[in-house]
Amino acid sequence: MDRFSALPKIILHDILVRLPVKDAAKTSVLSKAWNDTWFSFPNLSVCSEDFFSEDDVPAGNRQRFRKLDILINYVTKRLLRLRDQGLAIKKFKLDLQNLDDLTHVSHHVDQWIQMACESGVQVLELYLNDDCVRWYELPLCVIEAKSLIELELLGGIKIDQELLKHSMKFSSVKMLFLSRVLFTHESAIEYLISHCPLTERFIMGVCYIYNHLSSGQDRKGGIIIPTGFTKAQES
After folding, report:
1. Do 187 and 221 share a structural domain?
2. Domain range holding 47?
3. Can you say whether the dihedral through the CA atoms of 153, 157, 158, 164 is positive or negative?
4. More exposed terminus of the chain, fewer Cβ within 10 Å: N or C?
5. What's the pLDDT at 85?
6. Residues 176, 113, 51, 81: is their CA dihedral positive or negative?
7. 3-state DSSP call for residue 223?
């Protein structure tokens, strides 16, 4: 193991990228060198299922909040360490699909995405729960990120038309994947596509358009969500 620890970090990172995320994380306990390698690893993949399952702790229970705090502290610590060392983030994957309520974590998600963008993230994957009480609004820093090459948005994410009117729009994105995303206006989809100058691959699953003319309405978490959603065209 000492011989492996003495290898350059670029080689150790190449070893980690070939391992499943859980196995890669376990290398941090092997030695101080491996611990430093793990915390400088430019691929950060976070899945809420690795911290707790949807059914193991009732929502609102103190134990569930403690587990959520562990998740928040882990992600924040990893990102801060990369930023403080001036290290670029190649990939940031955040999967919170089994969280039934993002109310207590949404501002942390804003901070994490901001730190990732400031650290030159190239691939950003956001997998959120579209059954949450609120839709998560994509922050401005994402469309401003000049380093971003691939962007995947899956579930529970809202793209506001006002956001797309910003002067800088996905200027370097080559691959864009959208599924179960809410657009606040029907023209926002066309506007988005027309302002991705370098996009070579665009994939759209079932997305939604806010129908302001719908008569039937459901209220979720204080946000009115019409029953008259229309499916955006699949590409």
Report:
1. yes
2. 42-231
3. negative
4. N
5. 79
6. positive
7. strand
